[in-house]
Amino acid sequence: MKQNTALIIIDMINKMDFDGGENLLENSLLVAERLKEFKKKVKQQGVPVIYVNDNFGLWQDNASELLEECKKGTGEPVVEQMEPDEDDYFIIKPKHSGFFGTQLSILLDHLEVKNLILTGVAGDICVIFTANDAYMREYNLWVPEDGIASEYKEDNENALRIMKRSLAARTDSLDSSLLGHIFSS
Amino acid sequence: MKQNTALIIIDMINKMDFDGGENLLENSLLVAERLKEFKKKVKQQGVPVIYVNDNFGLWQDNASELLEECKKGTGEPVVEQMEPDEDDYFIIKPKHSGFFGTQLSILLDHLEVKNLILTGVAGDICVIFTANDAYMREYNLWVPEDGIASEYKEDNENALRIMKRSLAARTDSLDSSLLGHIFSS
Amino acid sequence: MKQNTALIIIDMINKMDFDGGENLLENSLLVAERLKEFKKKVKQQGVPVIYVNDNFGLWQDNASELLEECKKGTGEPVVEQMEPDEDDYFIIKPKHSGFFGTQLSILLDHLEVKNLILTGVAGDICVIFTANDAYMREYNLWVPEDGIASEYKEDNENALRIMKRSLAARTDSLDSSLLGHIFSS
Amino acid sequence: MKQNTALIIIDMINKMDFDGGENLLENSLLVAERLKEFKKKVKQQGVPVIYVNDNFGLWQDNASELLEECKKGTGEPVVEQMEPDEDDYFIIKPKHSGFFGTQLSILLDHLEVKNLILTGVAGDICVIFTANDAYMREYNLWVPEDGIASEYKEDNENALRIMKRSLAARTDSLDSSLLGHIFSS
């Protein structure tokens, strides 16, 4: 794993207080457990971690406030697992793609990142939107098939197929032995 | 059909000289025949037509030159059918989404357009990318299921499902009776 | 004053720990006193207040943390005067223009704002950059001549002249009787 | 002069059929003569030339048509001097900055350009807007003081001062001996 790789965690700090939120919560919890371990592992290798998270209507660019708000919601069990460390980056997004109306691409330039590991929810909405924008900006993509979740399994798989085919994304699982060399070439 | 609607035609002026181009050509030809008629019909109702087209590496923002180039390629039969009229708009895009690095959103503001009919190729790449960006910019979307084509049928259907579910897109067919009132509400 | 107007406060939450910071601090303090009153007055009329503020290298989209940091810096006296209220919006920018890499234009759409009162520092850098971007996005601009400050007076005046001439900005002072009708037409 | 440098020519293909156009025409003609020579010289050294030009309301991304249109206008003498070569790039912009709603930054990435020589008109509008956007994207800037023109000399000088101070731009003249090493460090 090279330093020019970043781990992106999308919308895991989440109220989940919308229709379909319960389904998404269940699927997200499974991802959260795996992702927590994976995050620990890649941080030890110097990979920066960037939360890219919905603003949930607050429009404050205030991560502290956003965290407090989301702990009060249905998504609390996921928030507990995924709470950002002090040295993680935290970027608030107003729309679906992590690149739209955010400082993400400027931060990635600043960190000299070329490879993105995209994780989080929902696979068929914010993850795929962010992946599209990342691809147009010429990042190499790894979207681990067990590192994203959607409300419905079938939609999650559709999204993975599209990202694999149209965005040249790797979709190997989080515990893949690829970890060491997936972006090494 | 209201004047605040535009017909977007994506990448139909196309060399199709890439791997998989033959498949795409065959599928695009079917779309081109239907789309030509549809274009005629909506223009009579005052709907502006906007070609949004790959630059094919020319980087010249020169539609005349682009047309000449594409007529020399495999895609020529489609280009013949879909040649733009003098009063159509023509926007050249450098990447997959019609909104990325183009004047499209500024033109749509200028035309006071709120509703987009997205058509063209490829459904699972440039059409879905453009649809994503359109959705984030709060346009209402109609992506007629028989107005787009991809290299593979299954991928085209996947893309339609994603656009329907995640982008709230209508996918009714081109000859749908919805034409008159689909965006009327 | 119509509801489609917003007060933008640029970089007043500021460490001012750079070369030239002392000059800027002195000039900013004068602005801060006037601006504090002006802000109170326009809020009573329902005008939303949007802080648009440098990230000072934190990359956290965390307004709370940013405020704490800036209180420790040379700019503390200005921060004290200009501390945001709970109901003010707070947007963090990574570069000079408030529109570049931020959710500002999406928030302004959301608030249906068409007219901007641009205030803050530095007039010849972040204010004029933000003004340029605002003008291209077709906002009407009021940049009160006593609501902005730069390190050097002459540079501040140059910036005002450019904004007046090239961006069609009004530059009337904060206590202008224009307040009631400047954007009414 | 390194290959990672590009010469940008702004709005020299110009109708000049607006108020103040006559003044601008006179000032632009002086620039055109010098710029024509300069362009020849830098092309011999392998520097790519990129025209970045207003759309003049055509919305067609059609350089051929734009050239024809502008030859019919007041600006014809300048257009004659500055007509693009076949191997020059041509980018059409809908607004003042060459980066807003265009493929410019994608082309510059593609060409691996880091240093820009900004020339053309008007210095106090489109040139300074483009310079601002270039600076935020971390390009090094050379805006030759005799390579730009504005309607009024004083405004041109103001713009140069702002670009020098706030954008760290070099403003040495076109025939400067700096040509060989200005961006060499």
UniProtKB/TrEMBL annotation, chains A, B, C, D:
<dbReference type="InterPro" id="IPR050272">
    <property type="entry name" value="Isochorismatase-like_hydrls"/>
</dbReference>
<protein>
    <submittedName>
        <fullName>Putative isochorismatase family protein YaaI</fullName>
    </submittedName>
</protein>
<dbReference type="Pfam" id="PF00857">
    <property type="entry name" value="Isochorismatase"/>
</dbReference>
<dbReference type="InterPro" id="IPR000868">
    <property type="entry name" value="Isochorismatase-like_dom"/>
</dbReference>
<dbReference type="GO" id="GO:0016787">
    <property type="term" value="F:hydrolase activity"/>
</dbReference>
<dbReference type="InterPro" id="IPR036380">
    <property type="entry name" value="Isochorismatase-like_sf"/>
</dbReference>
<keyword id="KW-0378">Hydrolase</keyword>
<feature type="domain" description="Isochorismatase-like">
    <location>
        <begin position="5"/>
        <end position="171"/>
    </location>
</feature>
<comment type="similarity">
    <text>Belongs to the isochorismatase family.</text>
</comment>
